[in-house]
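# nightly structure sweep
# worker-07 picked up a monomer target from the shared queue
# config: single-sequence mode, recycle default, output format = structure tokens
# input follows
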Amino acid sequence: MYIPSRTLFLLCGFIHRSAARRVNISVSASKILGELPPVARFFGADEPNYATYPDGRALLSHLGSVGPQQTYFRTHNLLTTCDPASETSPHRLKWGCTDAYTEDADGRPIYNFTITDLIFDAYLENGVKPYVQIGFMPKALSKNPEPYSFDFNGAAAANDIFTGWSHLPTSFEKWGELVYQWVKHCVERYGVPEVESWYWEVWNEPNIPYWNGTQEEYFMLYDHAVQGVLRALPSAAVGGPEVAGGAGGDWLGLFLDHTLKGQNSATNATGSPIDFISFHAKGSPIFVNATDSTPSHLQMNMATALQNVDEAFSVIKSFDTLNHLPVFIGEDDPDSCAACLSSSVDYRNGLIYPSYTVAAFTREIDLAMRYDVNLTGALTWAFEYDDHPFFDNFRVLSTNQIDKPILNIFRMFGLMQEKRLEANSTGQALLDDVLTNSVKGELSDVGVLASASAAGDKLALMVWNYHDDALSRPDTEVSLRLSDAFLGRGDVKLSHYRIDESHSNAYSAWLELGSPQDPTQEQISGMQADGMLQMLHPPIPLKLDDGVVNIQFGLPIHAVSLLVIE
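# output follows
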């Protein structure tokens, strides 16, 4: 059935009265730019043990099904020692533990991988693979073990947490042997083909007090850990260094130099094995006070994170023998701390977080193309907390088994196709402008990321309307022209997915219910349905005119559309 253009105009959500700006988007299905890297399938958290809890398992099942590409999970504290004196251990903010390593009275190692097995089992049972962080230091192996554990309330000073787990080992040989025994155990439990598909990285942000040692001592930690991994599984993928702040000054460059020509403290050979390179990038939101023209509000800053990425890519590109390796932004977030209290609950619960994510990830893919580096993953550092209030002010993906809008951006990414297409938007901010200033001007960033299947039978286009300021704005009128599509075919189907105030948004539904902290089961079931990815309207047929079709729709501020045409 042919849908007249006027009907399509209305079905796609355009309302002329509310649109104050028109943006034209053009996509050519015949102009393939290359592979679209499936970067949005990596997640992580400080707290490993929540993966084994009911809400954690439920969320893992959703993460494992965000797309056809494999999902991975990275977590701190996989080797941290439990605190038997704490009634809340191990489930508390920024903490987790496994008791993987202790020693007997004579200092002989005792290995116990029961808890790490439970964590990895929870991943694998839900279609998620480990991106294994080798850390932190077990108490019996720490050179400065006291104090060891800590309690974090979301507002404590950062230095309060860098206790005995962040220190050097009493013996690098014992450290390497622990890693060997762990990997050997995983191979015996899960098999070589499975463990070969994991990533093994050493520590976290060693350029800040997560590592209470020197840079050279981190290189020793890395050498012995990697040697332990490869002794147990020579085909394992190893890497790092997960530095904070992009290149971390000269840290990333000196680390890469060490892997090429430094003296390996574990083998006495030259260099150290590396199969992937990782670093972290974070945005820096602020709270803006009210003025005569605007109310007080949260203001995001994407430029900070993109500058981290730009700096790290520049360093990686300078290493001719390494710049082909997979690159991971091992923590890639709008702000620094998932377990820290946010000044704006709405940011972490509502629409800014998902719209920021798609706008930032697209620019990171653009930067990877500019530098010709192999960006493989952009890891979102957010999970969930069991037994916490509904829609609290921590950075999580779900709340009491209700998915937040942010999770639907990953479902959208999961529907993107293998090949990236040329796409242009008159409303999209230039890469270098966003890199310098973020999106703080008068106009919002109305951008597009377009893709096609390798078989040529499906197109998927993401369109967003992002601005740093958490302020209301009129809808934008989007006019999208698709050309060279499905040549020789007359009819196709459009499925239009949407994240906005009334679609794919359990937070809005919760607010409409009066923000209950004791919702009924019926209300919970309704919010769970609202938290899934939803369509703006039922799928509709489109009529192609020599491979051309025009689609128009309204796009509210901080909303995201995914158009799948097949």
